[in-house]
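User
Take a look at the entry that follows and flag anything odd:
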Amino acid sequence: MSKFNLFKPLIEIGPPLSSRAVKILLLGSGELGKEIALEAQRLGLEVISVDRYDNAPAMHVAHRRYVIDMMNEQAVKAIVKREQPDLIIPEIEAISTTALRELEDEGYRVTPNARAVEISMNRIILREYVVKEVGLPTTRYAIAESPEEAFKACNEIGYPCIIKPEMSSSGHGHVKITNGSFDQVKKAFEESIRHARGRSRRVLVEEYVELDAEFTVLTYRHINMDGRVETITCDPIEHWRYGEFHYIESWQPSIRSAEILGKIAEIGVKIADSFGGLGIYGVEVFLTRDNRVLFSEVAPRPHDTGLVTIASQELSEFAIHLRAGLGLPVPRPKVVNPAASLAIYSEIDTWSPVIHGIREAISIPGVDIRIFGKPYVYTGRRVAVLLARGDTVSEALDKVRKAGRRLKVVEGWGKDAV
């Protein structure tokens, strides 16, 4: 069990694989978990990586790894009881929240906390929570449990609208409804349910808004040197999807007005403080063309759009999350230079994917790449991210776009990979 209480600062770190080691256990070992694991290695921590499939990205840099069904309460608890971690870090939505709650009640430290993970992983519960409990503005929405209810909700909200699964990530199962056809709504409902995690049969029917911009405000709670819990926001990250449901580009700093950025930061603070705990929250916010600032979603962990902070900030979002979760102080990091990220997605299904064009891409000054090393990819799965620094955001974006055009994901055993 943890060597320190929930809000007691960490004061010492022993060597990994020793009795004085500080252990972190990652529940979910994707590309975000890999960056957390790398930060943990830099601090001399012992890293245990858990996921539903073997050779997940964070497993490549962990001391030990386990492959389990993370929705299985007993499996999650068995690994935690065996490893006795000082900090449990959920990295994905599909985790048994019952196990997290019980482990937290027993004294294990979950970052930010089990309640935040439980509410955030469920799109419907989250929407009801932020509207009724936190009082944040959102798009108009309704909840449906059948194609008939979804059709009625679409007609009430108006067209176009969007149907989203109760639980999913990275835009999976999001379907735009363009007209009042029952057949289109029924097909969209079934598509959303097919992509839903868990056994949910509910969907969120949401107003479709014309966006002027999208933001992620990374908001974290840490214990400062006075021993007080303090909530801090990083400079908001702006991002864009190009009509897709997953992010394509992100950049920092945003060039929007101080008034808009202030409203975005306020939403981040309200969300983080309502959930409590220690660690970072990736709070997504919409700016609509009719100038509304609306809460969209929150991840109780580092955010995919926040990968840009590896190149832009003094401390990345991964370092912030880890240090804050451990009870270490995290002074507000400065943006040291404008930077941009470009996510690279696979357009094929293959084992052992191969990325071509790396030499050409990183030959551009200021461009870097993070290849996640996923053993299997499918169409629409993120495989890498390009990062670029520039004197301006525009220059950084130009660099990653140019580099992105030089990359290609090909079959691991095809003739193009030879």
The two ends are 49 Å apart (CA to CA). The chain has a mean pLDDT of 93.
